[in-house]
Amino acid sequence: MAASTRSARRLRGLIGVSVVLAVAAAVSALGPGGPAGADVPIRHVLILFQENHSFDNVFGQFCTEVADQKLSRKGLDRGCDGVVAGKNNTVKTVPLTPAGDIVPNVSHTIAAQQAAIDGGKMDGFSKINGCKKKQGYGCYVTFAPPTPGNPGSIPNLVSLAQQFAISDRTFEFRSTPSWGGHLVLAAATTDGFSGDNPQNSKFTSKRGPGWGCDSYRDAQWWNGSAYVPEPACIPDAGGNGPYRPSLVRYVPTIFDRLDAAELTWRIYAAGPSGDTDVIPYGWDICPSFFECLHGPQHANLVPTNDVLADAAAGTLPNFSIVTPSLDISQHNGYSMAEGDDWIGSVVSAVENGSDWDSTAIFIVYDDFGGFYDHVNPKKYDPNWGIRLPVVIVSPYARAGYTDSTPATLVSFLAYTEHVFGLTSLGQADGLAYDFSKSFDYSQTPLAPIDMTHTTIPRAERLRIAREPPPLDDPT
Question: Could you give the C-alpha distances from 395 to 31, 46, 165, 355, 441, in angstroms and in order?
């Protein structure tokens, strides 16, 4: 698989786009263990899509403790690339202090991310709102692994990272906050949109929920010479969907490929809670694609908590994306531990259901949330954004393995396409790395591990309820 992908990359600069796409289609017919279905027991791909954290923010101290042999990983561990000290363009070295459970509010717009990356120097984080010196360098923090008597905020994530596989080279496909990342996970493209979250339209006074086709919101879209406001909606193949005439074109999604192959899929999502709701309905993916919002695919948008019953009953679809409600999202302003409890509950439901033996779970975050990371994404691709935490949980994940092959959010689509023998959506996913090194389908299947539950103190719950971030999240 890796050799086929490298060959396709070399061809890109030598032949026309149409031939590259043909090569990509041929590559996508191969699964991580060979032809689709051959020696690949995975029949269920589940993506737990959490909110707003960088790799160093989640795993910086974890990786450091592994390197110092203070924390063990079983089996094939080769270490992972995390740090506990960052840098800025003023005092140069900034320690990553222990993160509190309530996630700090830090800007993570495109402009904020570009300032943080600072042309690849990774020293501009203290320039962004929420992380300036007078704000105590709030984004220079990392979560501590559990210790005896102190489970910390991410005991389930740490246990899964120890026992299964992680990626320490998965980046945002583009430097965007949530909306752009969610478009990419469906279509392997932002379809000309900058990726910044949609804003209230100046063309109408109507308001709807979320960020998508029913929101009456606009997002910045590239018209060939400048970014202009267009409806935050990807039309269906007939051009239907935007609340006003739009130049944005239809693009296919992974859901189209799954439908064509007669495979099942669901988006487990929070849904709208009223006309004033923006997030989490904005994360729900389906409403941003009119084909999904208005057509038969809409039946596959189901409540977030349904994933627990489906996993326990052994009725998971072939492909699923799980987006959280705010309280379990680990979004800025909310509890990291409560989100970790949620991750543990989903993993436990899969582990204890009959689908465990045929499932690959990817736990990943949609953007960096404003938090420090030391790895320069521009080293790999000028368009990639900041590094994200990824944990890969499966009976066939390589135990204790760190996958350092460069990847992006598009790589989850590549994995899905290769497992199920689907045609790629385009060049981006057709040539993307698919986490194949993280799996060994010939190994003795790994056993489930126990998940834990962290009780959130009442005082913390009251503080979150008293000081929530705005629903109309500008980042």
Answer: 17, 14, 11, 11, 9
DSSP strand pairing (165-171 vs 387-393): antiparallel
In sequence order, what are the residues at sequence separation of 6 or more whose Cβ sits closer than 8 angstroms to the Cβ of residue 429?
Answer: 24, 28, 188, 410, 411, 413, 414, 417
Rounded Cα gap, residues 335 and 370, in angstroms: 16
| Residue 70 structure tokens | 């203070």
Report CA-CA distances (Å) from 121 to 55, 57, 118, 372, 384: 17, 18, 5, 12, 14
* Cα separation, 114 vs 124, whole angstroms: 8
Angstrom CA distances, 229 to 179, 212, 222, 474, stand at: 15, 14, 9, 16
The pLDDT, as a whole number, for residue 418 is 97
Q: What is the mean pLDDT of the chain?
A: 90
For the stretch 252-311, pLDDT in tens is: 999 999 999 999 999 999 988 766 678 899 999 999 999 999 999 999 999 999 999 999
On the 0-12 / 13-18 / 19+ scale of CB atoms within 10 A, 81 is: middle
Span 211-251, pLDDT tens digits: 999 999 999 999 999 999 999 999 999 999 999 999 999 99
Residue 3 CB contacts under 8 Å (≥ 6 apart), including other chains:
none
CB neighbour list of residue 14: distance below 8 Å, 6 or more residues apart: none
Q: Right CATH number for 43-84+144-420+440-466 from 3.40.720.10, 3.30.565.10, 3.30.70.980, 3.30.70.1290?
A: 3.40.720.10
Contact 36, 318 (CB under 8 A): no
d(CA 22, CA 19): 5
What pTM was computed for the model?
0.91
Specify the residue for token string 């393995």. Answer: 401
Q: Which residues pair with 289 in a beta bridge?
A: 234
Q: CA-CA distances (angstroms) from residue 292 to 235, 298, 306, 405, 439?
A: 10, 5, 19, 33, 32
Q: Which two tokens stand for residue 363?
A: 């736990």
Q: Which residues of the chain have pLDDT under 50?
A: 1-37
Q: Which residue, chain included where needed, has tokens 């109408």?
A: 204
8-state DSSP, 457: P
**Encoded tokens for 117:** 């990356």
CB 423 within 8 A of CB 257: yes
Domain positions in the chain are 43-84+144-420+440-466
Residue 128 backbone phi and psi in degrees, to 5: -90, 150
